[in-house]
Design a protein that fits this description.
Shape: globular
Number of domains: 1
Order of helices and strands: EEEHEEEEEHHEHH
Radius of gyration: 14 Å
CATH architecture: Beta Barrel
CATH superfamily: RNA polymerase II/Efflux pump adaptor protein, barrel-sandwich hybrid domain
Strand order of the largest sheet: 1-2-3-9-8-5
Length: 130
């Protein structure tokens, strides 16, 4: 099930815009977590680090592969979820909730609007399966 209230990237990150504090919370989709398998290493940007939309901001490694984690928006990292770096199982248990990775204060609100809707992301996954 792909949550309707989130936006997505072609590289399998999800993003949620918080109206209250104008931040974007970022995580990895269920699809990405399933593809990776057992995670053995996770490197996230540090608080205060500037990230660029569609540029690598971290690395996740599993027994199968290593993948970059891409920023869905440009801005400054204001929070990092240390619970995930200490317990990789969270990714499988709650990819769209407690397993968020970072919160970003976006430079530009328009970045978020350019991300894929849940339907667009579902279509992307369907195309990749064929």
């Amino acid at each position: 099930m792909i949550p309707e209230n989130l936006r997505y990237t072609r590289t399998h990150e999800w993003a949620r815009f918080d109206e209250a504090d104008k931040t974007v919370t970022v995580g990895l989709t269920d699809f990405a977590v399933e593809q990776l398998g057992d995670v053995v290493y996770l490197e996230l940007p540090s608080v205060g680090q500037k990230v660029q939309k569609e540029s690598a901001m971290g690395v996740i490694e599993s027994v199968k592969a290593a993948s970059d984690i891409y920023a869905p928006v440009s801005g400054e990292v204001i929070e990092v979820n240390s619970a995930v770096t200490e317990n990789f199982d969270l990714l499988k248990q709650d990819a769209y909730g407690n397993a968020w990775l970072v919160k970003i204060k976006p430079d530009n609100d328009k970045d978020f609007a350019t991300l894929l809707s849940a339907q667009d992301y579902e279509n992307l996954l369907s195309e990749q399966e064929h």
